[in-house]
Structures are given as C-alpha cells and as structure tokens.
Write a structure and sequence with these properties.
Strand content: 5-15%
Structural class: alpha/beta
Mean pLDDT: 81
Radius of gyration: 25 Å
Largest sheet: 7 strands, mixed
Strand order of the largest sheet: 15-21-20-19-16-17-18
Length: 677
C-alpha cells in the first residue's frame, strides 16, 4: 500500500510505529545504536537464553524492517544518518526531548536538510511543557495518564497491565499521525512537519472518558476489580465473573442495545431454577435509569448479581461461550495466551503463521510462530512480514528501493510569508456508522485532524453510550452523557432509521458523498441493513470502507457481538492484570483498535483538486474500491510482545510487576550507559 521510506530511530518505546508502517508496505530502516537496540535485551528469549539475536520482544516489534548500526555520538554516524534523512519521507524517534539537538540532529536541522520530511517524536510527556524532561517508565506514564487510578482493587494501590502498554498506544498514534502528515504533504502543502506524541495523552484515552467525571460535575469514578463504581451509584458494576473453571467477562448491563442480551441471559438463569419469573421479567431496558432514580433499590440489584454469580459458578468457560452464540449473550472467556494460540477461530483466520529467523552466530536458523498483519484489506492484502534481522553490522547504510514516481521529491522551502492553513485531513469526508466507544473514537481522530465526519444515529436504537454513565451534572439524559459527547466531539450528526427503506436510501446517499465509510457492527448487522461492503460497492464502485468488530468478518466466532471488555478477555489481557494473590481484575479498558487503520485507508482517497505545483511526478491515484476489516479480540494479542509457544515449558505470563521497571543498566538511545527510563 505505502511506498514511503521510513527512518526508525526508536527503541522499545516506539518500535510498534515502524512495525505498523512496515506492515502497510513502507520501507523501514531501523537505526540501532552501537551495540544494538535496547529492545534486544528484553525477554523472553528463544530457549530462555538471553542474547541480542534471541529476543522475542525485539522480533515482535521489528519484523519487516531492515536494520543498521549507527553511532550518532560520532561525526561519521551523524553524516550517514543525514544522508539517509535527505532521501526519507518519514523519521520517527523516541529520544528524550533535546537529545537529538545535543548531537546536531534536531528537528530544525532535519527540516532544512529535507523540507518534505515528516518528523515524529514519541516521548513520555511531550516535547515541551513542565514535565517534558521528567524521567518516566511505562509504570509512571500509566499512573500519570489517569488509567491506573481506575485499574485494580479499591482496597489496594492502583495497578497497570503486567505487560508494558503505554508506549504502544503512543506508537500506534504516532503511526496514524505520521500518515495524516504525509497525506497533508502529498495533497496540500508539499511540506513535512514535526509531529509531537505524548504517551501520557495517548494512554489517557483508555480511561474511556471517566477522567471527565470531575470537571463534568458527576463525581469521580473509582476502581473496582473486574468492574467500575459509577458516580452516583453505591454499587459495583461487575464485568468479570468467576465460573467453574476460571473467569468470564459478562456484559450484564442495560439499555436499548444491551438490555435484550441481559434478558436472554436471565431467561437461561430462570430455566435452570436460579431465579423466579418476576426476576427474569424485570425491565432490563430501563433498569439502569431505575437504579439512578431510585425506582429499583440497590439492595435488589445486589440480590440479582448474587443470583448470576451462583449460576455462573455452575458453568465452564466453554459451556458459557457456546451458549453465547446459541442464546445471543454477551459473554467471553478470560483467555490465556496458550488458549488463544489453540483457538479454532484464530486458526481459521490464519492469525498465527510460521516465520523464518535468520540471526547471527548466537542464534541458528529456526522457525518461530508469529502474529499476522493487523488488518485485512480486500484489494491489497497485507503480507506477513519476516522476522527482524540479527545484530546489524557497520556497513554503509543505504535505501534498498529506488525512489518511486509517486514519492514526491523534496520541494523547495516554502516562503514564510505564505502560512500553512487548515488541518491535515481537511477536505476528507467520512460517513460514520461507528458504535459505542472504540469505533467512534477512531472516527473522532479523523474529525480532530480536519475531516468532515457525519455520524449516523437512530432515535429508535440509541447508542449505548447515550444511556451509560456518567452524565454531566448527574442529569440522566441522552444528550448529557459525557462518554458519548467526548468520542463524538467535532462531528456532525444525522438520525436515520436504517430499518426503513427511506432511511437506508439516505444512508447510501451519504456513502456516495463520503470519501471513507466506517462501521463497527457485527458482520450480520450491516448485511441485514444492506449496508455491508459488497452491497455498498454496487452503489459506489470505488468505495473505501473500514470495518472493525470483535472477532473479525470470518471464522467460526465472527458473529460474536460485544464490547472492549470482552475483547480484552479473549485476547489475554484480563488474565495478566491484577494482584497475584487475587482473581484477575482485567484492565479497566484496552483500546487495541489501532488508530492507524482509518488514516491508512484515508491515504488512498482520490483528491478532486489539482496537485501542488511544486510536486514532481504523477499524483497518486487509488485502484478500485477497497475494504479494511480489523478484529479487536484476536488482534489484541499482537501487543503481548512475545511468541507464547516458544517460552520455556511451564512458564506462563503472570500478574506481576515487571522487573524491567526497577533501576538497571542498559544502553541508552545513543549507546551511553543509563538506567531504565
């Protein structure tokens, strides 16, 4: 898809960014310091034996890249880097603020050398501001983002996920932002720009808008293992439940969208004799509002939860998961990595594949199990990228591919008297059929970047977030729901009844108008409306469409409906989050719906305007229409950073604090000796 040259100067704090771009077809050159990247020292290791060519973590986030060793502390290494940067489209780095300036490679130097270069910096707290130079680890970034305050048990200290994740979220944002900046360069100004990514800000999204409770005068949400305690309700909304052989994620919630699933579950509970018909027949649609306004006492809600607890304790994970499809429930098993590896659904989607490792003398040739591409494209499938190479040598680095015609040459510097106006995606039009939180947040990013996004809603089937807490000023009203307001900020909105022919016709007109169409329903839902990818292509042959659902569009479990907590459960994240001496509590929220995907598709859009006059070569034009499908559940396993089938026998991920966050000695980004960041 992409024909860009990317200089990757990141360590483990940002290597996912280059990995995503390599997945999309970019030529990515990983620049490692003298002695190799610090990511090579991160375990687990093949055969449980440490070595720079044996790190499964390094392989996970550097597949598809070429590698070169440059010592930027010396003039020769800096000259070689500048020669590469002069011909690059994108440079991404994760140095502490000011490090590149100290060696004469700051952003002003790079911009003068190559005015078309997009320079992306990933840092803990951003490149400026009072915390810019604060030392940070994943632990401190998770704490500073507000995420940890919502994760863990109320009677103990806050937690983070046992596998570091804060910088992965920043790296995913960096990839999407880089593509947006390249889109702006190629379609508007012809110039590169500096993109500043703060891991603290990126990871704060995983608080799922609950950080807005205090400024929204809705009180403050508190952490409750396996759930959340909403402001204004003296009870825990439970999402993680024990069963006979483990735990399951059960969305036992209410409202127009979730109430029918809860009713289906209570019918089963009643059939098995765990409750009476009066309990089964409660108004599960309006039940949440009844709890807020006092019509249903909290004591009664606690009684119902105990009934459900007793019922689930009699069932295995497999029994509950099988019933999820047969009875239309919202239940997902808390899956270990070993169980995910053996999953029939994951195998059917060919998620895992065997990759050859060509390493150095410390690591003989061998084959390892690797995760596939992050999304499926209908017209231009993403290849499974090869494993990272062994420790690089000191040969003179150069780009492997010639400059292609569609890659713009560096334009002359733009006169300062002509200011750049607008935002990167200005002029892009998006028809937004997204639903609940993660999907609408992805389209909100496009709106933030300047796209015109039209959100399609229905007054007959309110979005779940319009009926979920917390509400501004504690006013229980669909227009005062803070989560919904946050993820749909900057968009326009239209209410359509997609169940009617007239509503569908308007929806199809919006698709014809839009450059990109986005949706996040199960495959069955859009097909039932006649708004699935193949149906819409009859109305718009060059349709570009993103589709994101829980388990993907193929495989035996593709019909599973659900939410982010269920995705976190089936992809191994609940199992590794919590205290070792207690049941797992699960992450409060884990948005592994990578934000790079919609921007990657937007890059392929035909522009109705003439190219910039300074641009050389033909304007990039897309081929036929294309669709993109991403699976939240299995896809989340990519960010575990290891191959679970290659660990020592008996070793499993446990809920522990990572020793990598204790002070230690390892090479810094320029090769100097420094403690863990």
């Amino acid at each position: 898809m992409l024909s860009y040259r990317v200089l990757d100067l990141t360590d483990e704090r940002g290597q996912l960014c280059g990995k995503l771009l390599a997945d999309l077809g970019a030529e990515v050159l990983l620049v490692e310091p003298a002695g190799g990247s610090s990511s090579r020292s991160i375990g687990p290791f093949v055969g449980d034996r440490p070595g720079p060519d044996r790190s499964l973590f390094h392989w996970a986030f550097n597949r598809g890249k070429r590698s070169v060793e440059l010592d930027l502390r010396h003039a020769g290494g800096r000259r070689q880097l500048l020669a590469l940067a002069a011909e690059a489209d994108l440079l991404v780095e994760s140095f502490d603020p000011g490090v590149l300036d100290e060696v004469g490679l700051g952003r002003d130097v790079l911009a003068r050398l190559n005015p078309a270069l997009v320079h992306v910096a990933i840092t803990a707290f951003g490149s400026d501001g009072p915390k810019a130079h604060w030392p940070a680890t994943d632990l401190t970034v998770a704490a500073a983002s507000g995420y940890s305050s919502l994760t863990g048990d109320v009677d103990r200290a806050p937690l983070r996920i046992s596998i570091p994740q804060a910088y992965h979220h920043a790296a995913a944002d960096a990839a999407g932002a880089a593509l947006a900046a390249l889109y702006e360069r190629d379609h508007h100004s012809g110039l590169g720009q500096f993109v500043d990514i703060s891991a603290q800000q990126s990871y704060s999204v995983c608080s799922q808008s609950f950080l807005l409770c205090h400024p929204g005068n809705a009180g403050a949400a508190s952490r409750e293992a396996g759930g959340i305690r909403l402001a204004g309700l003296d009870t825990k909304v439970q999402l993680l439940w024990p069963c006979r052989d483990g735990q399951v994620s059960v969305t036992f919630l209410f409202g127009v969208s979730m109430g029918p699933f809860t009713r289906n579950l209570m019918e089963w509970v009643c059939e098995e004799g765990f409750c009476d018909e009066a309990t089964r027949d409660k108004d599960w649609i309006d039940y949440g509002t009844m709890l807020y306004d006092g019509r249903e006492p909290i004591s009664e809600y606690e009684r119902v939860k105990q009934i459900l607890h007793d019922f689930l304790a009699t069932k295995t994970k497999a029994e509950l998961y099988e019933a999820t499809f047969r009875r239309r429930l919202l239940i997902a098993p808390v899956t270990t990595m070993e169980e995910l590896l053996a999953s029939a659904h994951v195998r059917a989607r060919q998620f895992w594949h065997d990759a050859d490792a060509e390493a150095g003398p410390d690591m003989p040739h061998r084959t390892v199990r690797a995760a596939g591409a992050f999304a499926k494209f209908s017209a231009t499938p993403l290849p499974n990228t090869a494993l990272a190479t062994g420790l690089p040598g000191r040969e003179v680095p150069q780009w492997a591919s010639p400059r292609r015609p569609e890659r713009p040459a560096a334009p002359p510097a733009r006169p300062s008297a002509v200011p750049r106006t607008g935002r990167p995606l200005e002029g892009l039009k998006v028809a937004d059929f997204m639903w609940v939180f993660a999907g609408p947040y992805a389209s909100r990013v496009l709106a933030d970047l300047g796209a015109t996004v039209v959100r399609i809603e229905s007054s007959r089937r309110l979005d779940t977030l319009r009926t979920a807490g917390n509400f501004q000023d504690d006013k229980i009203d669909p227009d005062w729901a803070m989560q919904f307001t946050n993820v749909n900020a900057g968009k326009r909105s239209i209410a359509l009844d997609l169940g009617s022919a007239a509503g569908r016709e308007v929806a199809i007109d919006l698709v014809r108008w839009a450059d990109v169409t986005m949706e996040s329903f199960t495959p069955k839902a859009m097909t039932a409306f006649g708004l699935d990818y193949e149906s819409l292509r009859r109305h718009k042959p060059d349709l570009i469409m993103t589709s994101s659902c829980l388990m993907g569009h193929d495989g035996p479990e593709s019909s599973l409906a659900g939410f982010g907590t269920m995705a976190a459960a089936v992809s191994g994240w609940f199992h590794i989050t919590g205290w070792p001496d207690r049941l797992p509590c699960g992450p409060f929220q884990r948005l592994h719906r990578l934000r790079v995907a919609p921007v990657a598709v937007a890059r392929r859009v035909r522009r109705p305007r003439a190219p910039p006059t300074h641009r050389r070569g033909p304007v990039h034009r897309p081929g036929p229409g294309r669709g993109l499908a991403a699976a939240d559940g299995p896809g989340g396993a990519r960010l575990h950073g290891e191959r679970p089938d290659r660990r020592a026998p008996g070793q499993r991920r446990r809920r522990v604090r990572s020793p990598r966050h204790l002070p230690g000695g390892r090479p810094g980004p320029l090769g100097e000796h420094r403690g863990d960041r």
